[in-house]
Amino acid sequence: MAAHAHTVKRYKGLMDWLTTVDHKKIGILYLIAGFFFFLIGGLEAILIRIQLARPMQNVVGEETFNQLLTMHGTTMIFLAAMPMLFALMNAVIPLQIGARDVAFPFLNSLGFWTFFFGGVLLNLSWFAGAVPDAGWTAYATLSGPTYNPGHGIDYYVIGLQIAGIGTLLGGINFMATIINMRAPGLSFMRLPMFTWAIFITSALIVFAFPVLTVGLVALMFDRLFQANFFEPGTGGNSVLWEHIFWVFGHPEVYILILPAFGVISDVVSTFSRKRLFGYSSMVFATVLIAFLGFMVWAHHMFTTGLGPVANGLFSIATMLIAVPTGVKIFNWLFTLWGGSIRFTTASMFAIGFIPTFVMGGVTGVMLASAPADFQYHDSYFVVAHFHYVIVGGLIFGIFAGLHYWWPKMFGRMLNEGLGKLTFWTFFIGFHLTFFVQHFLGLLGMPRRVATYLPYQGFDTMNLISTIGAFLMGIGTIVFLINVFTTWAKPRNATGDAWEDGRTLEWSIPSPPPEYNFKQTPLVRGYDAWWKEKMEGKTEMIPAEPVGSIHMPSPSILPLIMSIGLFIAGFGFMYNQLIVAGIGLAITFGCMLLRSVFDDHGFHIEPEDQDKGVHV
Amino acid sequence: MNRRRVTKRLLPLLAGFALLLSACGREDLSTLNPQGPVAETQFDLMKLSIGIMALVVVVVFAICIYVLIRFRRRPGDTSIPKQVEGNHKLEIIWTVIPLALLLVLGVPTIQHVFGLAKDYSKDKEALQVKVTAHQYWWEFEYKDLGITTAQELIVPTGKKIMFEMTGADVKHSFWIPSIGGKMDTNPGTTNKMYLEFPKEGVFRGKCAELCGPSHAYMDFKAKAVSADSFERWVSAMKAPAKMPEDVEIAKAFEAKCLLCHAIGQENQGSAPNLTGIGDRQTIGGILYNSDVVADPQPGDKPAAQNLHDWIKDPQQYKPDNKMPNAAENGLTEEELTAIAKYLADYKLDYQSSGK
């Protein structure tokens, strides 16, 4: 037992949260940070809508408007949506596969802190007075040094690079976790649909994010060191940036939506008390969507002038994605068919997702037709389309997932009355905001305009849209109220909080103890927990005897490494190479420490395992 | 679940309402009100795809509503529904039917992808126009005719107009919604696209790609005129430039305006060519001239007033544009008024039917 004789390292209070490598706590950190950025992005959206409520208003100036639209898009995608997905991934995946943690707990913590400091750096641009203003797509040459000489785009480039490290680490980590850490008996074709979705998403992250990194590095070199990747005046090619951005950007869309598909699959099947309809076709559809997702980037560039051959090919490839997506939609509907549907906030968001996402999906097919896209492209029609899939798809999915797994994460049931109020205000507000935008685009309103002239037929619909945005804001506030009032109450959630739980996470207490499973469970089929319940059992069959449980040690190093990158980022941005060197030295110093000093973690002995477990 | 059903019923109603409200939009602006064969082709494709997609939406909504009503859990119901694994027949049906629907949309898509990309740049019958997009104005060069103009594209009806497009600084996008879809103007590369204007009239053009603070104000006009009028316009444009009659004003104009702008076709400056600016619908693309446009709206001012306001402080109307204000440019109020009047009166008088 000599190798086991390591001291137990534990911290309390704030230090516990700064040093934690526990996936459940990191999930909560992701949720808090992601939701905080969601509120910032939402505030930016409200300001955008106030500015556009009436024609020729000047609530915020044109320059501020461009900053708002850029930061709204960037924040919502990279700093709100993805972290909230990572929150669900962290909170749920190890539990769903019967694991005690992720494959690389240290990396998991590092991933969170790099994301967090990247996001903070990006948002500090508001205080520095130099805010990115070239759109979240940052098309060259508008984002280049010639036409954007300030530091605004530097914040975008460096903030996203640091945050991107976190995402890439997360992708690698969850891929390794799902491949290696499944409980005995949990073969791939028995994985819960959410786990499948995250597995495929992680693969997409691993292939897509390096492309973004390369693009950002090239743009950074253009801006900081006068390289000429995207500057046509000196031999560069501005269209190259578009290709790089969308080779990353389109898979990114599926990185966002596939996890939502996974959430919907789990929620729909739980609350209709039915096995997911067509499980294997669901898996196949997910893989196919991910594969095709890499083949369609140029449909964002139909009007860039790639010529009819490219436009034709990318049109057809894009349309093909509709087929596996349609398979999913019908599988969900037929999971509900014949079921016993219970209407909770989670299931209402999931069911509201289905028609809403279909509306976003069909406009996607319309956009795929290149000649017609010449009219839709860069108009409000596109704005309506991607908000239908990202808000109506992804955000509904996140809300469904949060309400569904909240008791598992926090041990408390969210209030259903407030939850339903959240759903109805958000759902109605959403359709009010974005439905009319389809028509605004078709009537000739380009996107990303700071204002519009009167007498063009845009006024009424823009006003409706703004009213809807406020309703969505109210829905979000109701959700926050729900969270805080629930927080003030004692823990009340049972292990199988919704009673109809099907997957492994519902077989353990809410919230789970730090080691998740006292004994690794034996999985005997798809919907492992449901299967045991149907056979009259009240707990999983263990695959191992009770024994001492090995745990990773907490560490402050990930936080310090991320702070090092944060400092280095500022150094590069303001051309203070000494500062940059200090920052990098901190990061590499931490890596050295981590390499030189072994930390084998510690063990929780059987007699300590029941301490503080909520039953 | 009544509320849910009501919402679902409201959606198509809302759609109808929105359509009614807009009545397909302005004839000179809306993609739903096409005024040329290119926009018509695109509109036909839009109608086809909307039709197919509406069918899909109706089917999904119908199943969804049925399921939600029929299979909701009754209070106290603890029964376990049958755990269905799947159904091969159904799964094949909802794979094959969408494929067939996509084929219906895919074939005309491919046909028009190639049809609308036809190159008329070697066609002697087609009018060749080079479009250069600047922050935040449009330059139109008629290469074969040796004419350059700005902000207002003049084209003859009944001819194919072949555009060659590029961006002078950042990426913009050239879009006349009621005539045809858009094409980007990339800095450093050239794109081609043709359009046709079968009807005389003025059509609104927009920049569709974020290009800086004044992106929203980067409008232009496309004016289609008869072949005869077009001929007259060409000769008027090529005629020697008309300078202000007052010598002092002419001096000031030359020293303070013509450093960047140009009149006539002798030299082209870095700023919009002003020849015949008094004929144009707008100043700066967004200030409508009440004495020129066919349908003046409340708030529109005469061209002389718009020019005066614009020259006095261009940044107020288009922030970040390159034109200095009158004070920086050393223009006195007298010079300013006189120049505005001279420009407003600078008309080419080429249309047989007056304006």
From TrEMBL, chain A:
It is an enzyme of class 7 (translocase). It holds the Pfam family COX1. The chain crosses the membrane at residues 28-50, 70-93, 105-128, 155-181, 193-221, 244-264, 276-297, 309-334, 346-368, 380-402, 423-443, 463-484, 556-572, 578-597. Its EC number is 7.1.1.9. Pathway: Energy metabolism; oxidative phosphorylation. Keywords: Cell membrane, Copper, Electron transport, Heme, Iron, Membrane, Metal-binding, Respiratory chain, Translocase, Transmembrane, Transmembrane helix, Transport. It catalyses: 4 Fe(II)-[cytochrome c] + O2 + 8 H(+)(in) = 4 Fe(III)-[cytochrome c] + 2 H2O + 4 H(+)(out). It is found in: Cell membrane; Membrane. Belongs to the heme-copper respiratory oxidase family. This is Cytochrome c oxidase subunit 1. It comes from Cohnella kolymensis.
